[in-house]
């Protein structure tokens, strides 16, 4: 009897977002990650048997990805762009006390897994997998130790994972055809935070949607919103040295014409100061009925995904969004209604057509 192993892992993403009274087609929640000030990202020099040229290129691309986020955020700031400072440097080994978030290169994830990278917190760490996965025999994820991901893919993975480090969750649609289009299209996706790296990885870029979501998370104080530090004053723009003006020839003074009395100008109403989004924990639990499955060619099994929303964060009628990442990098998004007490449940069918490998399951709630 031929059996195939299917493993489920859970990544519970505790998030909060602005309340919406109706179902939305697009979901872009936030996680509970918050930087507590301008942070230093440290790229650990790859130590595997990688050429010096490739090592230098990967480090440079990762540094560029941090700088791309900083530039995008500063370009959107009208007053003091110092509140969006981000720093990056290369270090030879991990556990450097001067680093807030380390970025490490590894060859591949665990057995039968195809994840491109991940962000973990706390402490802050990004891992980028540099070997290109494929499906052996059309079903089993595997790796060729000689096939490296492209430079564009390394940059795209870094951009995406740094987005997670800023507090961004995935940008998903409840229409799975739209999610597939973003991944396979010849056009840039609407966000760097779509769940999978596009087929043409160079198309993934930081967009206005991403920048405004980060600004929504941290508010008008930027990365100082969750720190006890004083926001630095903006650097004054130096005044240009004026050119000497020649003395004009005096003209005869005409008789003054009385000016009409101007109407008083009303005082402008000040714009409200954006407040940062305080991270909450709406998901109290989420479980998978079976985390390791052996399905033979004749049987099928039903897997239950279930959980509960915290009472304080529960809004009747809002759905839970469950994202399932399959071993072939495809995703399925489920929009699940909750009961009146915040309980939710979804059923997955595993049969002979299901891919073998690791399935990553995450849940978010737009409460």
Automatic annotation (TrEMBL):
<keyword id="KW-0482">Metalloprotease</keyword>
<keyword id="KW-0645">Protease</keyword>
<protein>
    <submittedName>
        <fullName>Matrixin family metalloprotease</fullName>
    </submittedName>
</protein>
<keyword id="KW-0378">Hydrolase</keyword>
């Amino acid at each position: 009897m031929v059996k195939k192993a299917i493993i489920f892992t859970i990544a519970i993403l505790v998030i909060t977002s602005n309340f919406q009274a109706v179902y939305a087609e697009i979901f872009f929640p936030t996680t509970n990650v918050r930087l507590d000030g301008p942070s230093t990202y440290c790229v650990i020099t790859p130590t595997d048997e990688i050429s010096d040229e490739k090592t230098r290129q990967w480090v440079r691309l990762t540094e560029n990805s941090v700088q791309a986020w900083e530039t995008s955020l500063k370009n959107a700031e009208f007053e003091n762009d110092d509140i969006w400072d981000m720093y990056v440097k290369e270090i030879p080994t991990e556990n450097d006390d001067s680093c807030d978030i380390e970025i490490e290169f590894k060859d591949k994830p665990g057995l039968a897994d195809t994840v491109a990278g991940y962000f973990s917190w706390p402490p802050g760490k990004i891992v980028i997998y540099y070997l290109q996965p494929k499906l052996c025999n059309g079903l089993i994820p595997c790796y060729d130790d000689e096939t490296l991901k492209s430079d564009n893919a390394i940059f795209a993975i870094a951009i995406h994972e740094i987005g997670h480090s800023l507090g961004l969750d995935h940008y998903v649609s409840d229409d799975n055809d739209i999610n597939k289009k973003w991944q396979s299209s010849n056009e840039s996706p609407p966000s760097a935070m779509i769940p999978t790296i596009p087929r043409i990885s160079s198309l993934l870029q930081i967009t206005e949607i991403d920048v405004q979501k980060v600004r929504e998370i941290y508010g008008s104080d930027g990365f100082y919103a969750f720190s006890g530090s004083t926001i630095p004053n903006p650097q004054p723009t130096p005044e240009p040295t004026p050119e000497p003006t020649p003395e004009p020839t005096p003209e005869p003074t005409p008789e003054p014409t009385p000016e009409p009395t101007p109407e008083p100008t009303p005082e402008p109403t000040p714009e409200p100061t954006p407040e940062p989004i305080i991270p909450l924990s709406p998901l109290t639990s989420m479980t998978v009925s079976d985390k390791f499955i052996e399905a033979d060619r004749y049987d099928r099994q039903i897997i239950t995904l279930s959980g509960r929303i915290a009472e304080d964060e529960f809004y009747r009628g809002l759905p839970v969004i469950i994202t399932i990442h399959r071993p072939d990098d495809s995703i399925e998004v489920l929009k699940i209604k909750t009961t009146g007490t915040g309980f939710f449940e979804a059923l997955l069918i595993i049969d002979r057509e299901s891919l073998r490998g690791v399935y990553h399951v995450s849940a978010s709630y737009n409460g």
